[in-house]
Specification:
Blueprint (H helix, E strand, L loop, with lengths): L6 H33 L8 H30 L9 H18 L6 H15 L5 H10 L9 H5 L1 H19 L5 H39 L7 H4 L14 E8 L6 E9 L2 E5 L9 E4 L3 E6 L12 E6 L3 E6 L5 H11 L28 E8 L6 E9 L2 E5 L9 E4 L3 E7 L1 H4 L4 E6 L3 E5 L3 H12 L16 E7 L2 H4 L9 E7 L3 E8 L22 E8 L3 E10 L2 E8 L8 E7 L1
Antiparallel strand pairs: 1-2, 1-7, 2-3, 3-4, 5-6, 6-7, 8-9, 8-14, 9-10, 10-11, 12-13, 13-14, 15-16, 15-21, 16-17, 17-18, 19-20, 20-21
Length: about 575
């Protein structure tokens, strides 16, 4: 141990570490019970980030309680050093405390998720227009002092984890160089500095990829969905991996005229185009909509024996005449390959298919009833009959109507929350936030409002697999060698950046274009940043128990081949991703 002049300062520092840790754990409990737990259930906050922060705080509390108990145990074993001069005993205690930090260093990485969410939650909680939220925060702070405010409590985890290296640095300065305790203190300091660097790196990672992680965590893992995997919406006919393609003559849905179209079938479904050179499909029939395909007995040519097949979906039957009768069975076999085995029937498929041939009041619902809705164009307030079910939200002119005036699909809903009376000059109003519009709805009472908000929140995406940045085991940029086989023939590895993220329970693959976007056209992320927000070209999530990993031979001196194979998904062929990395 250091010279006797430092013994007193060392004892004071160890006492400070223990006492401030006790206060910190107590404040975490207050933050959880007084603020975050109640905010996870209120109607006036869109609670996804709040709920995630609350869940992460429980993990932090678990770790910090164990860490505090370990500190207490080690310090109590050598408590005599606080009442007498025992340099060796104090050195032994310092070594023990350093070992506690070393044993919990890996656990402290869970702060990554909290720190990444902190800035987003701050924006939500600092909303000046949310009067109910402001009233709630004031009611929870009975003393009206800043030290008891949510702002004071919620920043403490961020501050505390960054202070640990500073405390260890002070311990190192008070210990004698070359001593056993100094070596352990310096080792603990180095490890904790790596933890803080990891947390900072995860914060930057979250700012860049949090929207992608959110979308991946809520997608159905048993389905390969086109819009989930390829959100760029760019699907020209010559840039889709093909199971089968070719020209055919299709009967129109409304006019019943027959027109020649170019068809492309892949594992997502069936596209058809004006021609093979077309840049945008006329229509896309998702595989989840398909029910059955068979050879047709219909013949549109009198006396002719032209080959035709029928494709049955939830809301329509498609009639397609092939180039020759010999093509009929190959098309049928190809389509049957991708029709899902476990298909879920939906009440409504999109905003155009909204006629039910039964009254609105007879539909199965989470909740239904009359509310007053603000119009989208004229902003007038009119009574509407609302229906919320597992597929989305529909509103009708009355309970007896068979045709919906509007449909909000489940996957369009981004949030729902109560808004203050001062904002709309009306009582008991909540907003439904979607990807393209915000709907304002007024209820008869506040109790009714709470029931509507609760029902609609059942439609919000819930993570099938939690993708918190604190759970990332490793990540990096890779060269995706077979990107053309999966994303499309126009896609080139040199024009894309592909990142692979290994979480505790899954692997995420995200690929983005390298194109330079003009400053005035840079998209803005949901977190408010724009500099690093680049749209995903492709993204996919593979559960850990669905992966086969193979390590290949080296491609060059600093590159190594490896591959991930995802097993069969709902009857589709297995998919192999071939990567190279350092």
């Amino acid at each position: 141990m250091a010279a006797s002049s430092n013994l007193r300062n060392f004892r004071k520092l160890l006492t400070e570490i223990l006492e401030t840790e006790k206060t910190y754990v107590k404040n975490l409990e207050i933050l959880s019970v007084r603020y975050l737990d109640p905010l996870s259930t209120v109607t006036f906050v869109t609670s996804l980030e709040i709920r995630q922060l609350s869940e992460n705080l429980q993990e932090i509390l678990r770790v910090q309680r164990l860490f505090l108990q370990s500190l207490k145990d080690e310090i109590s074993k050598h408590s005599h050093v606080f009442t007498c001069d025992d340099p060796d005993g104090l050195g032994t205690m310092a070594t023990a405390v350093s070992k506690v930090f070393l044993s919990y260093a890996e656990e402290f990485k869970i702060y990554s998720s909290f720190c990444a969410l902190y800035s987003k939650v701050q924006d939500i909680l600092n909303s000046e227009e949310n009067d109910p939220l402001r009233n709630f925060l004031e009611s929870q702070n009975e003393t009206k002092e800043h030290c008891n405010s949510l702002e004071s409590f919620i920043i403490q985890p961020v501050q505390r984890v960054l202070k640990y290296p500073l405390l260890l640095k002070q311990m190192a300065s008070l210990s004698e160089e070359g001593s056993t305790e100094h070596r352990f203190i310096c080792e603990a300091l180095a490890v904790m500095e790596r933890v803080t660097k990891h947390i900072n790196a995860m914060q930057r990672l979250s700012a860049e990829f949090s929207d992608s992680f959110r979308c991946l965590s809520s997608q159905d893992l048993g389905v390969r969905d086109l819009w989930a995997e390829r959100p760029d919406l760019d699907h020209p006919a010559d840039n889709i991996p093909v199971i089968k393609s070719g020209y055919g003559v299709k009967e129109g849905g409304k006019m019943k005229s027959w027109k020649r179209r170019f068809f492309v079938l892949n594992e997502y479904g069936l596209f058809y185009y004006v021609s093979e050179e077309s840049s945008e499909p006329l229509r896309f029939i998702p595989r989840n909509d398909m029910k059955h395909a068979k050879a047709s007995t219909v013949n549109r040519h009198n006396g002719g024996l032209y080959g035709m097949f029928e494709l049955y979906t939830e809301d329509r039957t498609y009639f397609v005449e092939c180039e020759s009768p010999a093509d009929v069975q190959p098309w049928i076999r190809a389509i049957r390959r991708i029709i899902p085995r476990n298909r879920k029937k939906m009440t409504v498929r999109n905003t155009r298919d909204s006629i039910f041939y039964t009254s609105a009041g007879s539909l199965k619902t989470y909740k239904s009833g009359y509310c007053v809705k603000q119009g989208g164009k004229w902003k007038s307030w009119l009574s509407r009959y609302f229906v919320v079910n597992e597929d989305g939200i529909m509103y009708f002119s009355s309970e007896q109507s068979i045709e919906a005036l509007g449909v909000i699909m489940k996957d369009q809903i981004q949030g729902v929350q109560e808004i203050s009376a001062s904002q709309m000059d009306r009582e008991n109003v909540f907003e439904i936030i979607t990807c393209c519009r915000t709907y304002y709805v007024q209820c008869e009472s506040h109790g009714d409002l709470c029931e509507w908000v609760t029902a609609i929140r059942r439609l919000l995406p819930t993570p099938k697999i939690k993708l918190n940045v604190g759970d990332i085991r490793t990540h990096g940029v890779v060269d995706w060698y077979n990107i053309r086989d999966i994303v499309g023939s126009r896609t080139h590895p040199c024009n894309t950046t592909t990142s692979v993220f290994v979480f505790q329970t899954a692997v995420a693959i995200i690929s983005r274009k390298n194109e330079q976007v003009p400053r005035d056209k840079v998209p803005v992320c949901s977190n408010g940043s724009s500099a690093s927000c680049v749209p995903d070209l492709f993204r996919s999530l593979i559960p850990g128990d669905d992966i086969t990993l193979e390590i290949g031979s080296d491609v060059s001196k600093d590159r190594y081949l490896w591959s991930i194979t995802q097993s069969h998904v709902d009857g589709l062929p297995e998919r192999t991703y071939l990567f190279a990395s350092r």
